[in-house]
Amino acid sequence: MSKRISLTRYLVEQQRVDGLIPGQLRLLLEVVARACKRISFEVNKGALGDAMGSAGSENVQGEVQKKLDIIANEVLIEANEWGGHLAAMASEEMEGIYIVPNRYPQGEYLLMFDPLDGSSNIDVNVSIGTIFSVLEKPQDHPGVTEGDFLQAGAKQVAAGYCIFGPQTTLVLTVGDGVSMFTLDREQGSFVLTQENVRIPEDTKEFSINMSNMRHWDPAIKRYIDECLAGEDGPRGKNFNMRWIASMVADIHRILSRGGIFMYPWDKREPNKPGKLRLMYEANPMGWLIEQAGGAASNGKQRILDVQPTQLHERVSVIMGSKNEVERVAQYYAELNEQPSA
Ligand code: P6P
Question: Which annotated residues bind Mg(2+) 2 (predicted)?
């Protein structure tokens, strides 16, 4: 087997050979990777650790926090606050931004994360993960505010996730394609296991929570009905369905073999654009999907072009195999049905 290269060497080469990432961004990504490794060890303890079950509190989203949600959030904060590469952080688990304390040097990057996405799956041993997104802090003013985070996803300089499943795998883009790094537990380091990840433009596999069918937009209902009609229907082929209810796991499958992932607006909460969060779920995942040749839409526009107005805002999500995402967007246009704003 050819000698595998470590995440560290890969990032040094991206910095030195390709000049793609500045030193401070390389440092940031290595720190995030080490934090993900630490979270993986906590997750893998399962019932042998004391981190299972609910923390008895709710996060800013009003969702019950698992103990591991809080642990993962603390691991990411503690790992990143002292290195001098960040100005501030934002997390699904924190209402406001976390400004790097004055006792540490302030850096030029902003880090956002969902520290443990899919955490409702922890107690049933289903894959979960950490999602992260990196922006540059605007340099036109001193200090850092929440408003500095409100940048469209197209402004990201790095994005990725770490999936804690049968393997622990870090998936990363810095704008030059998507690479995957598997945790070698014997060495305790991430090693490159796949480069230039590509998503097929067509698929036979859709991913959506079917229990919400009666609440969907007509455009989504039309798309799924046609998939269910199979080879005798307008699509002329049979489809399969997967729904893990862990975005990291569903997106990892799509990056690995194609498919379309949808969590669209529905009329259960018509004033909310969707369930998933724009800044630290849809934007990082959308950039990864695009960098792998897929597409990411909210039904009416490219997700990465959505201009955020709130740190924790939600968005309708349709992403994956390019031709399928474009078909759904076409159905929205044709039915003149725009997802709720
Ligand atoms: P539902 C997990 O709670 C999450 O935020 C995503 O990871 C996942 O795709 C979605 O919610 C699952 O939602 O409504 O099917 O439980």
Answer: 114, 117, 281
